[in-house]
Design goal:
Strand 12 (263-268) and strand 13 form a beta hairpin. With 454 residues, this protein is of the alpha/beta class. The strands form six sheets. Strands 1, 2, 3, 4, 10, 11, 12, 13, 14 and 19 form a ten-stranded mixed sheet that branches. The chain has a three-stranded antiparallel sheet with strand order 6-18-15, with helices on one face. Strands 5-9 form a two-stranded antiparallel sheet. The model has no long low-confidence stretch (mean pLDDT 96). The protein folds into two domains: 4-377, Alpha-Beta Complex (Spore Coat Polysaccharide Biosynthesis Protein SpsA, Chain A), CATH 3.90.550.10; 381-454, no CATH class. The chain has helices at residues 9-21, 24-35, 60-78, 114-129, 144-153, 198-205, 208-215, 235-243, 282-285, 308-314, 372-375, 388-405, 434-437, and strands spanning 47-48, 82-87, 135-139, 164-168, 171-173, 175-176, 183-185, 188-189, 191-193, 219-224, 248-254, 263-268, 271-275, 298-307, 324-328, 332-333, 340-341, 348-352, 367-369, 421-424, 450-453. It starts with 8 loop residues before the first helix and ends with a strand.
Length: 454
């Protein structure tokens, strides 16, 4: 603390608050086990692809199971047994957006913010099934106040404020390679979130799990903030998960190519595990079956269903998930001179947990395949893959498919993509089959039109 004596009283108070908020015994343990002893990872000897429930059932027996599963999911919604949980601790910095990522304008016509997309989906579900749905929103200390203020300014987008709970995840200091906590400024530690796995710890520490228990919640639908077309709660997926008595389950996408930047669902010694795309050797990532399909085809998209009591068990005797080492470029100050440092190569370790590390701790887990177009349009960058542009295009393509299935003509460009922008509010349709009942409300669509259906 070479600079502490130079700080103003408010600066000292804020730094003292930061220091007091951290679990220093945990930090010390992680410095010894993660920072000073770099982890090595080896490909397990017993590695195989998992079984997956297909997007479209294979036969009559599976069709019947899907029918029962959807009905089971609907029944759980009617009983008020499911909560929605979004991980929303990030800022929109990469998008050039000054604010929490959940406030970013996402949709192709009305440019609704991501948070509004989720709220409207839950309002429509609640109206359909006659039961309010609790919504838990994990923020970070960086964006917590701005997130709460945003929801208050928009009157919670017609959700009951009593059904919405905000709480921040824990932060950990960035640690230099020699084991020292870094300062971002003379008055502030260099802090970062403890990873998306920390969401399961935050549910416990915030009292959210206790709140769920009080409300009679049995199942949690987990998703991340960057996907405007996500099914915040999917009755079919939750129903399959519940019927199979799974503790934590996942949705997957068939990978577009072997080294696509999606985690790989694998069985390791019989336990479901996610292996990061960067850790799976090319020889396995590109391995093909006789029909030409990727052998390791199941890509993780961070959509999960989990039993509340399973999440509770992860916190029973200290947090159960392991911490991982991430070497990062962390802006900081020189501890002697106080001059700012903007490193051009990694200079520190961030310690992170991954939510999918809970999967090997389950006794039962399922994977359900979903459609890339139907519910995966993440916004991670301004342009390119998984961007603002691609997300709005995917949203329009999905909505055009829904309308086309109901007999609505869609103008097309020469490459076959819709020559228009289409946005369907959840109040208009939650599922493709809902569109047919509202077909008379759909105007003719011409090239270049911006169509909003609500």
């Amino acid at each position: 603390m070479n600079f502490y004596h130079r700080l103003s009283s408010p600066e000292k108070s804020e730094l003292d608050r930061q220091i007091a908020s951290l679990d220093w015994p945990l930090v010390h343990q992680l410095v010894q086990s993660v920072v000073l002893k770099p982890q090595t990872w080896k490909i397990p000897a017993d590695l195989s692809p998992p079984t997956v429930y297909p997007y479209v059932p294979n036969d009559a027996s599976q069709q019947e199971k899907y029918r029962k599963a959807f009905a089971r999911g609907e029944d759980l919604l009617r009983q008020g047994k499911i909560a929605a949980f979004v991980v929303a601790g990030g800022q929109g910095t990469r998008l050039g957006w000054d604010g929490p990522k959940g406030t970013f304008p996402a949709t192709p016509v009305r440019q609704k913010p991501l948070f509004q997309c989720f709220a409207e989906f839950l309002v429509a579900l609640a109206k359909r099934y006659g039961r309010a749905i609790p919504f838990y929103i994990m923020t970070s200390p960086i964006n917590h106040a701005a997130t709460v203020s945003f929801w208050e300014c928009h009157q919670y987008f017609h959700l009951n404020p009593q059904q919405v709970m905000f709480f921040p995840q824990d932060m950990l200091p960035a640690i230099s390679f020699d084991g020292k906590a870094l300062l971002e400024t003379p008055a502030s530690l260099a802090l970062s979130p403890n990873g998306h796995g920390g969401s399961l710890l935050a549910l416990h520490k915030s009292g959210a799990l206790a709140d769920m228990q009080r409300r009679g919640i049995e199942q949690i639908s987990y998703f991340q903030v960057d996907n405007p077309i996500v099914r915040c709660i999917d009755p079919l997926f939750i129903g399959l998960h519940d019927l199979d008595e799974a503790q934590m389950s996942s949705k997957m996408l068939p990978k577009a190519f072997g080294k696509e930047k999606l985690g790989n669902f694998c069985l390791v010694n019989g336990k479901l595990t996610v292996i990061e795309y960067s850790d799976l050797p090319d020889s396995l990532a590109e391995q093909r079956l006789p029909n030409g399909e990727l052998r390791f085809r199941a890509g993780s998209i961070a959509l999960h269903a989990m039993r509340r009591d399973f999440v509770e068990s992860l916190n029973d005797h200290g947090f159960a998930l392991p911490y991982h080492r991430a070497e990062k470029k962390v802006p900081c100050i020189d501890p002697i001179s106080g001059q700012p440092i903007k490193p051009d190569k990694p200079n520190a370790v961030k310690m992170e947990t991954f939510v999918f590390d809970a999967l090997p701790l389950t006794t039962r887990s399922i994977i359900y395949e979903t459609s890339r177009t139907d519910e995966f349009a993440p916004i991670k960058a301004p342009t390119g893959v998984d961007s603002v542009v691609s997300s709005r295009e995917i949203t329009t393509i999905r909505n055009a498919e829904w309308l086309l299935a109901a007999g609505v003509q869609i103008p097309r460009r020469p490459d076959g993509t819709p020559d228009c922008s289409i946005e369907i509010a959840p109040s208009f349709a939650l599922y493709p089959q809902d569109v047919l009942a509202r077909k008379s409300d759909i105007p003719p669509i011409s090239a270049g039109d911006k169509v909003y259906l609500q």
